[in-house]
Sequence to fold (134 residues):
Amino acid sequence: MTAPESESLVESIMDNHTTFTKPQTLFTKNRLNDSDDDEEEECDVEVWEMLSKSFIQVQSVLDQNRVLINQVNENHQSKIADNLAKNVALIREINTNISKVLSIYSDLSLNFSTIVHQRRAAMINCKRSVDDKA
Fold:
């Protein structure tokens, strides 16, 4: 793949914006009573909002990087010494943004894992209380 082909590939990938829409239901399970429905729906909203917020933050940083990358490319193509010198700062900013994306995904992973563990524990406790009543 030549440099122009790879540039057009990167640009086409970066031009594809993903729209996030909430699915009808995120999780299905046998429901014990109406209060479980409400609690599950609240949890679904919590999970969905966490995912959406994180993906929106990531998309914002990636959009910012697209602008910076385009500027770096323009500076490089101009071959003007001052513009080439500006690329150092621009590339540092791109690297900083990549670190931000990594941090957002790391936080998302931790938060999602915590919610999953809390749900599992709640389901186990709920099942135990139902078994104890039987």
Summary: Confidence is low (pLDDT under 50) at residues 1-14, 16-20, 22-36. The chain is about 85% helix and 0% strand. The CA atoms of residues 75 and 86 lie 8 Å apart.
